[in-house]
Each structure stands twice: as structure tokens, then as C-alpha cells.
Specification:
Glycosyltransferase, 2 domains, three-stranded antiparallel sheet, two-stranded antiparallel ribbon
Length: 663
């Protein structure tokens, strides 16, 4: 299996090519011909990249943080001199910023916890603190506030490897998570992406395992002042443990172990995420399980697909794999480009999606009483389906993309290779899957009419801390669900209260300037495109004041080169005029304006021209600044697939709307 994954990721790895590689057609080629050529080449590229079983998959890059944490795991296991550790260290050195430290996402400044993790990981693997790179990073860490300012899981790694005592970490008690009734309530309090990490950390926090490193591998030079306890609650827990006041500890640790093992069922590890699998491995070893145990073997097995050995002797680690997201976005792009329901690529994609629909209750079932029917981001993640991927899957299974009608003969033509019609899923099978998915989505709607990603949100009597926020609703998820419902025939003022309430919720989120934020403080171009597309999909009139204000805001943020750049500053911000456009936000801007009925405006024409100019000869687009924000912890990850899916959607929508490519 490992060799197959290595081969797959080696084929899919994309590198940014210089602008000289962008295809520039002769001046005499008409705009319509160039638009057709761009769509055809991109469609062919998508067809060629489809896997044999029908799905699409492109790399999701996690940056420096997973590499450092892999080294921490290897050090805890006594394997810091292994080949894998050396490859991680080389990758870390390549990703180091020129001024020292590491970023969390492309284009950002150095992050404190990522920089501490990277520095410590390099020390473990033999780098000397006196080197120029390490000295710059150390200075950057002190400039950002030092170890005393850390609040995340980095302190647990420092304690695990003997750099600080455990009583300087945020104590996580199995008693709080697994005490009958009360523990179940508190565990649900944390968002779904944190839950699979929190439980194994609770085991590690309770047992306090330590691997002692040599002084040369440590980071005493960063620990220049005492670290305060994280909270009063932590001080009380550590006081109780120091006096051996740990009631039911053996039974509670057993419950935690059972919870972790249970979440391996029909999943690529708990939460199908790198961090959760890594902490589960550490927890199992802390519980006394050896390398030959089934539990540790399962951790080792599930980590393999997340690692990619690169030719340069480096290693890339993905926080997770997104085959469902890649598949539904690729299928949406193909349908908008004119691929019909009996097209071989669509048929194989539908079959793959139907096999991945969840059929067992997950963590969400603690508060929602409905039959399973959602889709997860990953290959197998039975406990954590999410509303975005479910909405997109239902949308492409419904196949309602009238924009692609006029593109069918011209774009597909002789390239349309169909399988036998009897290989397509039966209408009954698709209808049953769609009905189950819609029931599940409707049941996941929050009381405020929004949708969160993994859970149905609920107000709690005490505040959340940091990334442990409950899974509240967002523009991204709510708009995705509304667009999907609209594509399936649901309408605003169509007699369905849950749709009307969701439209009102989306309207309420619109800013005074006219934009929406995909997530609080981020992704304004993306959020505005998604909200506009959703409102129009459920038949909100294009003359509506909400739609007009959003379209005007999009036009006002277009840059001089014809494109858009996401997270663009407000009026008067210098970043508005100095930022360079990039393909994905440009595609969002174009699609938002088309949805608002402004396909014939100069703004859209300039945006389309930008996309045509920046398409590569192989039909793809490269956006080195692009990173997707993943809920609910707002982590930004570089995902290569959407760099082609969204621009193709924008060009196909433009061609279908304007009739520039017809029969």
C-alpha cells in the first residue's frame, strides 16, 4: 500500500511554473476560440487526472507544523536518527523563512508556535544552535514573545520530550471527559476537529510520559524565564495529581482508550487527521502498548498515506487527504463545462461518491436524531461527515447545471467517451442517497438557521477557549448548503421555512460594505461569491438590494490587472493597490458577478481575460499564494486541486451565460 501511495502522490505533485510557461496564443485567435480552447484543455486535463475507480485527489500541503510534529513522535519513540526524521528536517530547512522561523500559510509572517516547533525539531535532529539559520529563528521567536506566550499543543510536546514539567501545560483530565453524563456533555462542547486530538492528549496528560533528550537536543536557550501555569483549573488538577487525588483513573483511562480505538472503525484513523493519529500513537505507548500491538500498528498504517517522500530527499506531510472535496469540485466543473449525465467521467464519479456515503451514526448523533446520510472529506471518516462535502455531493448527483447546456457538443465533441449506460447508478439508488443526504443536512441546521461543518451548534453557559470553539455556523457552510438545495429545486418563498430562514441568516451576515466573510476575518472574495451563488440558486431576485450591494463591492475590489486577490483590504488600504491578483480569487470574483447578473460588464470580461492569460499549456492554473481555510480551527492549507477547478468553472459559466461557445 505504501508504494502505491508513493506512486500516486509523486504523480499528483504540482510545482509552480514561471509565467513563461503560461500559454500565449497568437493574436489573430478570436476571443471565442480562445475561450473554447481553454475550456477544452482544462476538461481534458481533469479527465486525465481522474483515478480508475472514479475519484479525484490532489495534494493538501500542511507546511512546517506536521513535519516538526513527526520528528517529535519519532524522538519519543527513540527514532530521531531515522531516515524519516532526516527527511523531515531537510524539508523544515527548505521551508524556513529568510528572516528565520516558519509560517502557518503561504505569504504569512512567522508564527510563534510553528517557529518554536521547527526550531526544536531541528535541534533534535542535530542542528546546532550557533548556525546562522538557527540564530535568526531564535531571535524571531523572542521577538514574537517566546515560549511563555504559547497556548497550543506545543507545550505538551515540550513536556513529552523533557523540556518543561507537565504542570506548565493545560491539564486535560479524563475525569472531565469521561465521567458519566457530565463528561459526555463536556466532550461534545469541543469542536469535532479537536475532539479526536483532545482524548489522546487527556491520556498523555494523565500519565505524563517523558523521553529524556541530550542537552544538545534541548532548547534551554529558549526557556529564559519561568513558564506560568495556563489556568486556575489546570493548577487545581495538577495539585490533585501531585497529592494522588485521581479518582477512577484506571477506569477512565480505559474508557479513553476504548473511545480512541472505536474511532478507528471505518475511518482512516480518528478524525482521519494526522494530528489525531499521532497523538493516538503516543497515548497507546503511554498506556504500555508495544509496537506489535494492533492499536499501534493501526496508527502506523494510517499515517503512511499522509506522507510523501520527495525526490530531493525531503518529506511532505498532509494533515489529511481530501478526495471527496476534489471529486465533487471536479465533477461540478465538468458539468458546468457541458459533460452530460451519461459521460464516463461523471458515471464513475457518481459510483465512487455513492459508495462513500456514511451509513453509521457519528459523533453528531449525540444531539441529532436522524438516519446517517452525509459525506466526509476523506476516503473513510464515518464519525465525521460534514455539511459542505454533503451539500456538494448532493449537488453533483442531482446534475442540475443548465449553464452547461450550450457547451455540450462543442466542448465534448468526439472526446466524449461513454461507458455502457447500464453501468450508471440506478435512479432508485441515486434518489435514495439524495433523500438520505437531504434529511441529514436539514437536521443539521442550527437554531439560528445557519449550518456548521460537523455538528449542530448549541449555545453553552461558559466560554470556549482558542481552537476549542464549538462548531458554529458560517457563511461558507450555509451558502454551500443553500446552493445545493437551490440546484435540487428548493426555492426562497417556496413554502419551506428552513430555506427562508437560512436566506435571512445569510442576509444578516452581509457587511455594510456589501461583502460576506467566508470565515470571520478572512476570505471576503470567496464568501461573497458563495453567498451570491447561493442566493441566486434559491431564486432570490438579481434586483434584490442584497445582491446589488454585493456585486458593487466585488467590482470595487477588482485590481488593475483585471483579477482579484482575496483578503483585500478596505477602501484606502495600501494593500488594495499593491497586491497582485491570483487565479482562484479571480475565478470567485467572476462567478460572483455572473451570479448577480453582470456577465456582460467590463469587470467580468477583464476577469475572464486574466484567467485566459494565466492558464498553463496543460489546461491547469497555478496559484502560489492560494490556500484554503478549513473550518473550524481556521487552519490554512495549500490545496492544488481548486487552483484548476474554480477557474474552469468561471470560464464555463461565462461561456454558457454569454453564448460565446454554442452548438
Amino acid at each position: 500500500m505504501m508504494s502505491n501511495w508513493k506512486h500516486l502522490w509523486a504523480k499528483l505533485r504540482n510545482k509552480v511554473e514561471p509565467k513563461s510557461e503560461v500559454r500565449q496564443p497568437p493574436a489573430e485567435v478570436s476571443r471565442s476560440e480562445r475561450l473554447l480552447d481553454a475550456i477544452v484543455r482544462s476538461v481534458r486535463q481533469l479527465r486525465a487526472s481522474q483515478q480508475m475507480d472514479g475519484h479525484w485527489i490532489t495534494p493538501l500541503e500542511g507546511g512546517a507544523a506536521p513535519l516538526a510534529r513527526m520528528i517529535f513522535l519519532l524522538a519519543f519513540l527513540g527514532l530521531e536518527k531515522s531516515q524519516t526524521a532526516r527527511e523531515c528536517a531537510r524539508s523544515l530547512e527548505e521551508k524556513m523563512l529568510p528572516g528565520g522561523g516558519w509560517e502557518n500559510a503561504p505569504g504569512e509572517d512567522a508564527d510563534l508556535e510553528a517557529s518554536i516547533a521547527g526550531y526544536f525539531a531541528l535541534k533534535i535532529t542535530g542542528r546546532h544552535a550557533s548556525s546562522d539559520k538557527m540564530r535568526r529563528t531564535r531571535q524571531r521567536i523572542f521577538t514574537l514573545g517566546g515560549v511563555v506566550k504559547t497556548t497550543g499543543d506545543i507545550r505538551f510536546f515540550l513536556a513529552l520530550l523533557g523540556q518543561i514539567p507537565y504542570d506548565r501545560t493545560a491539564a486535560v483530565s479524563p475525569l472531565a471527559l469521561f465521567f458519566p453524563v457530565v463528561g459526555a456533555y463536556l466532550l461534545r462542547r469541543f469542536c469535532a476537529s479537536v475532539r479526536p486530538i483532545l482524548v489522546p492528549i487527556a491520556v498523555v496528560s494523565a500519565l505524563g510520559p517523558v523521553r529524556t533528550l541530550s542537552p544538545e537536543q534541548g532548547i534551554r536557550e529558549l526557556l529564559t524565564e519561568p513558564l506560568p501555569s495556563v489556568s486556575t483549573a489546570s493548577r487545581l488538577i495538577w495539585f490533585a495529581r501531585s497529592h494522588h487525588i485521581t479518582p477512577f483513573s484506571r477506569q477512565l483511562l480505559l474508557r479513553a482508550k476504548i473511545w480512541i480505538v472505536h474511532h478507528f472503525r471505518r475511518s482512516d484513523g480518528p478524525g482521519a487527521s494526522f494530528s489525531a493519529i499521532l497523538w493516538s500513537w503516543i497515548a497507546f505507548r503511554a498506556l504500555g502498548l508495544d509496537d506489535d500491538s494492533p492499536e499501534v500498528a493501526a496508527c502506523r498504517h494510517e499515517l503512511e498515506p499522509l506522507t510523501r517522500h520527495l525526490p530531493e530527499g525531503c518529506l511532505e506531510i498532509s494533515p489529511t487527504v481530501p478526495p471527496t472535496r476534489d471529486t465533487v469540485l471536479a465533477m461540478k466543473a465538468l458539468r458546468l463545462s457541458g459533460c452530460t449525465s451519461d459521460d464516463s467521467a461523471i458515471i464513475r464519479g457518481e459510483n465512487w461518491l455513492l459508495e462513500r456515503q456514511t451509513s453509521e451514526p457519528g459523533d453528531w448523533a449525540a444531539r441529532v436524531k436522524v438516519q446517517p446520510g452525509g459525506w466526509a472529506l476523506q476516503y473513510h471518516n464515518e464519525f465525521y461527515p460534514n455539511c459542505v462535502d454533503t451539500a456538494l455531493a448532493l449537488m453533483v448527483l442531482a446534475g442540475a447545471f443548465p449553464e452547461g447546456e450550450g457547451l455540450r457538443r462543442t466542448v465534448i465533441g468526439s472526446d466524449d467517451v461513454r461507458d455502457r449506460i447500464d453501468e450508471r447508478p440506478t435512479l432508485l439508488r441515486r434518489n435514495e442517497a439524495a433523500a438520505a443526504g437531504r434529511r441529514w443536512l436539514q437536521s443539521m441546521q442550527n437554531k439560528d438557521a445557519s449550518w456548521g461543518l460537523f455538528d449542530r451548534g448549541k449555545r453553552y453557559p461558559f466560554p470556549a477557549v482558542g481552537n476549542f470553539l464549538p462548531d458554529s455556523g458560517s457563511v461558507e457552510t450555509t451558502a454551500s448548503v443553500l446552493e445545493s438545495l437551490g440546484r435540487q429545486g428548493y426555492q426562497w418563498h417556496g413554502g419551506l421555512r428552513f430555506v427562508d430562514r437560512a436566506v435571512r441568516r445569510l442576509r444578516a451576515w452581509q457587511s455594510d460594505a456589501g461583502y460576506w466573510e467566508g470565515l470571520p476575518g478572512t476570505d471576503r472574495i470567496r464568501g461573497t461569491y458563495q453567498a451570491l451563488t447561493a442566493l441566486i440558486a434559491v431564486q432570490v431576485p438579481k434586483e434584490d438590494e442584497t445582491v446589488i450591494r454585493a456585486a458593487q463591492w466585488l467590482e470595487s475590489t477588482q485590481l488593475a490587472d483585471g483579477g482579484w486577490f482575496d483578503d483585500i483590504g478596505p477602501e484606502g488600504d495600501e494593500e488594495r493597490t499593491t497586491s497582485s491578483s491570483s487565479p482562484v480569487p479571480t475565478a470567485w470574483g467572476v462567478m460572483g458577478l455572473i451570479a448577480a447578473g453582470r456577465a456582460e460588464t467590463p469587470s467580468v470580461a477583464r476577469g475572464v481575460q486574466y484567467l485566459l492569460d494565466w492558464q498553463r499549456a496543460d489546461g491547469r492554473w497555478d496559484d502560489p499564494t492560494f490556500s484554503m481555510t478549513f473550518q473550524p480551527n481556521r487552519s490554512r492549507l495549500k490545496h492544488s486541486g481548486p487552483q484548476t477547478y474554480y477557474p474552469l468553472m468561471a470560464l464555463a459559466l461565462y461561456a454558457g451565460t454569454m453564448g460565446e461557445v454554442g452548438e
